[in-house]
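Forwarding these from the shared drive since the link keeps breaking.
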Amino acid sequence: MAPMCSGIPLTGVPFPRSEYERRRLNVLEAVANAGLDALVVTAHGHLRYLSGYDGSGGYFAPFPLIMVPGRSPTFVVRQYDEQAVRSYSCIEELVTYTHQQDLGKVCADVLRRYGLQ
């Protein structure tokens, strides 16, 4: 089993990957049961619960997590925050944006890539 975090305090993902998978699958099951095509998570507490990333810096720039049944979750993050998200999150697929006004287009592009309109 991989360690939950690195040797540096307050770095790394705060829970094991198996816990992340359990949480992700529970949410995706609820999404499917509700008849939804996708879930776009934006609340910081929910993002931390589902990814391990607490959103430092995200109060100034949104970082939605897009979850689609049968697909890997995708974080849409500011390019500036990409390294932090990779360091503190279980989410492997990241798509970046540079300017906040581009966020909606980038999220729509991710959803289209997953076959949604």
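-- next protein --
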Amino acid sequence: MTPWPKSVQSRVKTGHDREIVAAYPFRSSAPTSLWASLIDGASQDLTFAGYTNYFLWQQHPRLGTRLAVKADHGARVRFLVGDPESEVTTKREEVEGVPLTVSTRIKITLDALAKMGRHDGVEARFSDQHIALSVFLFDDQMLVTPHIASLLGDESPMLHLRRPEDDGLYDRFASHVAALWEEGRPAEL
């Protein structure tokens, strides 16, 4: 028997859904300020496991400088991107059929990372295994975008998760990214 009335019980999350901070029907409907607060608030681990990560450089002024400072203060900054020369990338370009190709967007990210210069803690790797799922980790918070069919990333839904406990949604997605990172091939910056 709980002391709370049913009206309160129905509004309080008690299971793993407590990890869901917010859900957005489109990645682009999440405020840019959310991304900025997560990027700026993280101090230990920032992992950008989007296939191109292109939009980040367009939406966040001085992102490279901000990430370099974090790395210089001991943060781990990782980018997992698709291989611009892979068959998976070529096929995705055919599906999207847009002038700003997937390979070009990946190369823009690699170029932005190279312009940051060398910083301990900043790494990039290639993987073609995350073409349909982008995961962005910021210490104990995460943004997850499952890509829908032929839609671009900004047109796909996004979940904002936080990690209140072990073995929940956050940990499952984090384990997925960790496995992809381990299997990934180093990208020269």
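The beta strands are 20-24, 45-49, 76-81, 122-126, 133-138, 141-146, 158-162, 185-186. The CA atoms of residues 51 and 131 lie 6 Å apart.

- D.
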